[in-house]
Amino acid sequence: MRRRSVLPSHHDDLDKGGGKPPQSRLCLLATLCVMFWVLIFYFHFSVLPSDADASTTHPVSVATEARIARADPAPDGRVSEPDDPLLAPPAVVSEPPPATLPKEEEMEQEAPTAVVVAQEEAPRREYPFQRALKTAENESDPCGGRYIYVHELPPRFNEDMLRECQRLSLWTNMCKFMSNDGLGPPLGNEEGVFSNTGWYATNQFAVDVIFGNRMKQYECLTKDSSIAAAVFVPFYAGFDVARYLWGYNTSMRDAASHDLVDWLRQRPEWNVMGGRDHFLVGGRIAWDFRRLTDQESDWGNKLLFMPAAKNMSMLVVESSPWNANDFAVPYPTYFHPAKDADVFLWQDRMRSLERPWLFSFAGAPRPGDPMSIRGQLIDQCRTSSFCKLLECDLGESKCHSPSAIMKMFQSSLFCLQPQGDSYTRRSAFDSMLAGCIPVFFHPGSAYVQYTWHLPKNYTRYSVFIPEDSIRKGNVSIEEILKSIHPDVAKQMREEVINLIPRVIYADPRSKLEALKDAFDVSVEAIINKVTQLRRDIISNSEGKDFVEENSWKYDLLEEGQRTIGPHEWDPFFSKPKDKGGDSTNSSEEAAKGAWKIEQRGQN
Ligand SMILES: *[C@@H]1O[C@H](CO)[C@@H](O)[C@H](O)[C@H]1NC(C)=O
Ligand SMILES: *[C@@H]1O[C@H](CO)[C@@H](O)[C@H](O)[C@H]1NC(C)=O
Ligand SMILES: *[C@@H]1O[C@H](CO)[C@@H](O)[C@H](O)[C@H]1NC(C)=O
Ligand SMILES: *[C@@H]1O[C@H](CO)[C@@H](O)[C@H](O)[C@H]1NC(C)=O
Ligand SMILES: *[C@@H]1O[C@H](CO)[C@@H](O)[C@H](O)[C@H]1NC(C)=O
Ligand SMILES: *[C@@H]1O[C@H](CO)[C@@H](O)[C@H](O)[C@H]1NC(C)=O
């Protein structure tokens, strides 16, 4: 506007001056003088105004730079995080936004706070765990960022339970399974099904002690908790509850858990993060530790509901899809190699086997459970000439023989792994160990469980046939499996065989070198989890919008993804569910039924 008011007068002057012939030098000088001032005005109002416009945005960019500059030497050494709204000024919007940028609405909502924070010059908070985070930057320390501190618990929390091993199960004398550091008695190899070394009659609930003993071999243990990436609590949580599951009141069942929590909370290590860097192992299904009420008729203890346990991470062989403090680790198999070469030999053998059966199933029907598809699977297997069946409920002892089971899995291309009394089965890991491609019928049987150990893209190593299609009775498993091209099946089997090291527990008395076993994978995952939590706490971006009931969806996210949405498996995990094995109620029923698994050894 102002520029316009100047320009016309300029033209007017020019017209006036230019329209008349020059009369004197004075006149020329006057004209030049006028032009000079016109130019001054022109520059003042046409060029400077754009500068003035810019100056309204200028303070923002200065402030932004200042914030980034302060954030740069962050205590954890990271450069500015793209997911921190404080450090994502609108100025960079033209660049492709990083995948983890919060939604724009969020950024707008937080923008005013950001300005206030920047102006207040709040001193950066120091956290006691920053020293531990720093060890990861020390390049001359091979254990940097990987140290584990192990609590020295009183023996009543672990060793004493082993001494009283006859009390660990009402059905099985667990004492023989405690031999060989928890691997159990060695298996003979009369039928040539196993390899000559590394095979044991391992009980499926022995992870407590196997994991504890593997930890003793962990290469980066530390006595200095201030540099620890995570803190291990060597409590035998599974053995503890197993002692009291049948015929004991709730106070007996909860006693050791209360005792443990009281002990932990008095330790200085607890206060660093309220126990959120602690982890422990209970080699049973989560439902044994998730008693909903204090009614005596309810199942299990309530360890996983205790406030202290909600801060810790507990490793179990089957986790709850709706909870964030339990994580699934593989059931133990019968194979516990002492060196890498034993694994490679086994893998090569599984690659070259003849597999005469298209598919096979080892298990018992569940006549008492109308929603179980096991009856239909058994029928389909029995009527197919391509299926091998090992039925378990006819007093047939073969079903309990590790050698008979492994022999069948080794001669099959695909192995059916329906739910048992709960979502998961040890059998899934036994079959993978035999190089047999697992067929799952519920995502809770593996896909939302063992996300640390198995690929998130389940089609790479398994076949999924939704339970409902079997229930409706018009799906032929034989047809589905036959339709898989042999090359595709070969690719899947190769993936399964490559997964073997990750799903077995190495002999805790020695160490694998290049290979990572189920223990290594789990510890690495826990360390990553605690490290991420610590970083999130420092950058004040922790747990935004986290809905615990959707835990299983977060577990399925790929690296870098942070938000969840509707999922194709929602129907499998809708809660509550009046039918199907998914409601908390029937999960409890499942846990109660689990005694049958224990009684039979192999369900
Ligand atoms: C880095 O690690 C080495 C080897 O463990 C250790 O001697 C050294 O003190 C560490 N440096 C720092 C700054 O912590
Ligand atoms: C629970 O059982 C134990 C022994 O089995 C008994 O000593 C205790 O009094 C019982 N507690 C309650 C609350 O019933
Ligand atoms: C769990 O962690 C939170 C956050 O650190 C803390 O406030 C709380 O006291 C902890 N709970 C227990 C039982 O220590
Ligand atoms: C999953 O794996 C299959 C087979 O390897 C592949 O064809 C497919 O593209 C993968 N899907 C994703 C989402 O990566
Ligand atoms: C059988 O399967 C087809 C899809 O293949 C489906 O449309 C149909 O509803 C099913 N029939 C029954 C009785 O479930
Ligand atoms: C579970 O559901 C059954 C009926 O479906 C009911 O009889 C039982 O009391 C329920 N159990 C619990 C713990 O709610």
UniProtKB/TrEMBL annotation:
The keyword Cytoplasm is assigned to this record: no
Record key words, sorted: Glycosyltransferase, Golgi apparatus, Membrane, Signal-anchor, Transferase, Transmembrane, Transmembrane helix
Low complexity bias: start-end ranges: 85-94
Bias (Basic and acidic residues) ranges: 9-18, 68-81, 565-581, 589-603
GO MF term set: glycosyltransferase activity
Stretches the record annotates as Disordered: 1-21, 68-108, 565-603
Principal location listed in the UniProt entry: Golgi
Membrane-related topology note: Single-pass type II membrane protein
Record's keyword annotation contains Phosphoprotein: no
Cellular component aspect of the GO annotation: Golgi membrane
Matches recorded under InterPro entries: Exostosin, Exostosin_GT47
Domain Exostosin GT47 residues, every copy: 143-479
Annotated localization: Golgi apparatus membrane
Pfam families reported in the protein's UniProt record: Exostosin_GT47 (PF03016)
Membrane-spanning intervals of the chain: 26-45
Similarity section: Belongs to the glycosyltransferase 47 family.
Protein name from the UniProt record: Exostosin GT47 domain-containing protein
Organism: Brachypodium distachyon
